[in-house]
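for ur thesis appendix - Transcriptional regulator, AraC family. copy paste whatever u need, i formatted it the way the template wanted (i think)
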Amino acid sequence: MPELALCTKTLDPVHVDHSHDFHQLILTTGGATELAIEGQGDRVTAARGCLIPSAHRHDYRGDGRHRTLVLDVPLASVSLLRAGDDLSRLFERPRFFGVPPRLQRLAASLSEQLEQCPALHSEVAALLLRAIHLHLAETALAPDAGFPLARRRGDRLDLERIDAWVDRHLADEIRVEQLATLCAMSVGHFHGRFRERLGMTPQAYVQDRRLRHARTLVGHSELSLGHVASLVGFRDQGSFSRAYRRRFAISPSADRARAREGGE
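the 3d part is after this line
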């Protein structure tokens, strides 16, 4: 069976755009990496990792300072890691996912072990992959789970679930009723709890998330601004540009020019 290839590396602050013939898991113990998969962008941080299936084009820019765990998974390895686990489902689609504190601690510990005993990289990789698989299964975010109703005790406003659902529907109309259903709340109760916890309305939160995704695409892709606008749910480039300028105090075209100048 082909070995899992796990390593720690520092991602340089340069723009990289490619795809590869193996799956990939990316975690970090600090800092942030701007990353987009097939045009859907987000940030990889200690609290947010990503899964990249083979042949999916992705681009990223590191910060040049923090160590990142990168796990390459050959296609022939996935279904053979452990009978009955069906870990191949992890890579049925590209996605970003929340990394809770316990997984952050595990990743940091495994990173240290990897640095001390690089010969154990395959064993450490298998443990890390299983931990991610179990975490996603527990939070009902495994592929085909359909984002069922939240089951968290106490505070049912599950932002990880909301973020994941919003990220899948950035190009669509997103209604508060849909977000409330994810958390098993009435619209009125959801709206009130959301404002109480985040200090903004759900609509404003979705708009901000659209624009932050858009900024990644503006700075790290060659897509036209009109295409970027449509990918994050704006009907036309004009309304997109106005919202972008209000949020970031700069137009998308000027922001793109500045990002390119910074990368030269």
